[in-house]
Design goal:
Number of helices: 13
Strand content: under 5%
Strand order of the largest sheet: 1-2
Distance between the termini: 41 Å
Number of strands: 2
Helix content: 55-70%
Radius of gyration: 19 Å
Number of domains: 2
Shape: globular
CATH superfamily of the largest domain: Hypothetical protein af1432
Order of helices and strands: HHHHEEHHHHHHHHH
CATH architecture of the largest domain: Orthogonal Bundle
Oligomer: single chain
Structural class: mainly alpha
CATH topology of the largest domain: Hypothetical protein af1432
């Protein structure tokens, strides 16, 4: 069976199965994840086509593995609810869960695909992952490329889907305060801000902005610049309490 068809069918089947009997919020979340999965698949190939050196380096099969990693990367998300509620990321690692599902399927039991998917939702790529360490030198290079493409595409699709007007709604309560000390420290160290620790609405917005700290490819960076992600994010942060000093810190550290 064609692997792209099989991967697409798996996502569609998981979506259809998991929305049965669920409340409206969970159904809406699954609709978003379905759109997101195929959006990432589009974006990853768009980035790959833009990176000519990488595109020419990869074989046809390796390019297909790149596309498969994107289609399947959030398969675990369709299982991230229990008793009518979403499990938190600390309770349920959807990347790890997806790998457990896929490694039992011969068409997808490929260490490069599994490595890319397992690492797509981590703060940084872990090169001590056994799916990576046991590869040949050539395959390590391919795995590194695949994982970085997937992380870029995942971030890019989220950036394009969300607007900054929606970001504050992801907090339980809008709090207009300057950035917290934790967020300032992350920026000074050029680190991603964990939204599990953010204290107020500005922190939350800055957390989304810091997705760009580990963007890898120039094609991705150009698309981020084209949608004015940083500029619009800084404006929105100011609307929710960021001080002039906060905005200067953001301009200094948030560059692509």
């Amino acid at each position: 069976m064609n692997r792209i068809y099989l991967a697409t069918k798996m996502i569609g089947d998981a979506y259809a199965k998991q929305i049965v009997g669920q409340n409206e919020d969970i159904i809406a979340w699954h609709v978003h994840k379905l759109k997101h999965s195929f959006g990432v698949a589009h974006d990853i190939m768009d980035i790959l086509y833009g990176e000519k050196e990488i595109y020419n380096f990869l074989t046809k099969e390796e390019k297909e593995n790149v596309e498969l990693s994107a289609i399947l990367h959030d398969l675990g998300r369709f299982y991230q609810h229990k008793d009518g509620r979403h499990l938190s990321n600390s309770e349920f690692d959807h990347g790890d869960f997806c790998v457990e599902l896929l490694k039992s399927i011969p068409e997808f039991n490929n260490p490069i695909i599994l490595f890319a998917i397992q690492e797509h939702n981590k703060i940084a790529i872990r090169y001590d992952n056994p799916y990576y360490t046991n590869l040949s030198e050539h395959d390590k290079k391919v795995a590194d490329i695949t994982a970085k493409l997937l992380r870029d595409a995942d971030k890019l699709e989220n950036i394009k889907q969300f607007t900054f007007e929606e970001y504050p709604k992801l907090t339980y309560k809008i709090v207009k305060e300057p950035m917290s000390d934790y967020v300032r420290k992350c920026l000074e160290n050029c680190e991603q801000v964990s939204n599990q620790i953010t204290k107020n609405t500005v922190d939350r917005i800055v957390g989304f902005l810091t997705w760009i700290f580990d963007v890898n490819y120039e094609t991705t960076k150009k698309q981020i610049r084209d949608v004015h992600y940083i500029e619009n994010g800084i404006i929105e942060a100011k609307n929710y309490g960021a001080t002039d000093e906060d905005c200067e810190i953001l301009k200094k550290y948030l560059k692509v």
